[in-house]
Amino acid sequence: MIAMTVNSFRVGIMERLKGHFVGLSIVDDPVAGAGISPGMVFELLSMTQASMLGGYCSRTHGFSIQYQVPDGDEKTSALHDMAEELYQLLQEIEVDGFTYRSTGLKHEIKDGRLRFGWEITIRIKRSEPAAATMGALAQGAGLK
Questions:
Q1: Cα three-residue angle 82-105-73, rounded to 5 degrees
Q2: Tell me: the pLDDT tens digits for 50-67?
Q3: pLDDT of residue 34
Q4: Cβ atoms within 10 Å, residue 83
Q5: Which candidate in 6, 39, 45, 127 could, as Cys together with 62 as Cys, close a disulfide (CB 3.0–4.6 Å)?
Q6: How far from 37 is each of 14, 27, 43, 55, 106, CA to CA, in Å?
Q7: Worst-scoring range by mean pLDDT, 52-61, 67-76, 82-91?
Q8: Phi, psi (rounded to 5 degrees) for 125
Q9: Average pLDDT of 16-21?
């Protein structure tokens, strides 16, 4: 069974962004990306896990992208164009050979920056310890 980790999603989405937006500075640290323009800051904001029946869990990953461009006459238009491109790019995401559908895609433009957010919910099977075999059980019987 393939182990899907939090970092699997983070790294997979970062690779997709860098592969699509060649030449654009994309970082996953908000402090490092503060002065980059044009530039993109990608973050995994949150992850929640809920137990389900049958040894399964439901995990929801919340992601965010902040994008800024230099000031100019067409700044707002460029930000909305980037939002449209992100909607198309992030609708379905392939990570480790599996395709995942994004939900709750949304964007806003505030303070001259594009803020784009979305979630991915997956179900995973919890790994359970293997049951002991008959040869490994302790013998507790004795003679009287």
A1: 25
A2: 988 888 888 899 999 999
A3: 63
A4: 19
A5: 45
A6: 18, 12, 17, 46, 22
A7: 67-76
A8: -90, 125
A9: 93
